[in-house]
């Protein structure tokens, strides 16, 4: 029996489960049995139950009567709709980031972009994709728009598995790196119009790539 002092709390369970769903460790339509998860994560069933309820509210988990919980499958049509909404919100976020940018923010963005270049040149697409996510999160944080941040956190979590598919398309990493460099350069120049345009162009390319997959 696990020592109560070592059990994951509700917040830790939520974060671990969310990460495993977003990374595809827990696959779409996979059943989520509380007892099995409690043993696997080293947590109490109450903490697992609460975490699953939060993830259900975010659209990552769904429950069926008499059948329990499972990882929700995001359809191809829904993935396209999510990306269309992301384009509008992240375009706004990039604009606000350019308006609010500080010298410290500039350094953080440049550091992430430099990491992206290293992984791009090494063809390490998984680490490149992680940097991609960090860069987008940083821009959203810089925007100061908390409502957009909450909505985008949910949307990005639901569509992350499609992100990995698009980055594997032929020629996609080349365009992706150039897109992100253009976004960062516009923000550093404190040019809101160019930052928004660059972000919309970037997400528009992803949207076209997603449509090609389907």
Automatic annotation (TrEMBL):
GO terms for molecular function: DNA-binding transcription factor activity. It holds the Pfam family FCD. InterPro entries: GntR_C, TF_FadR/GntR_C, Tscrpt_reg_HTH_GntR, WH-like_DNA-bd_sf, WH_DNA-bd_sf. This is FCD domain-containing protein. It comes from Paenibacillus naphthalenovorans. The lineage of its organism: Bacteria, Bacillati, Bacillota, Bacilli, Bacillales.
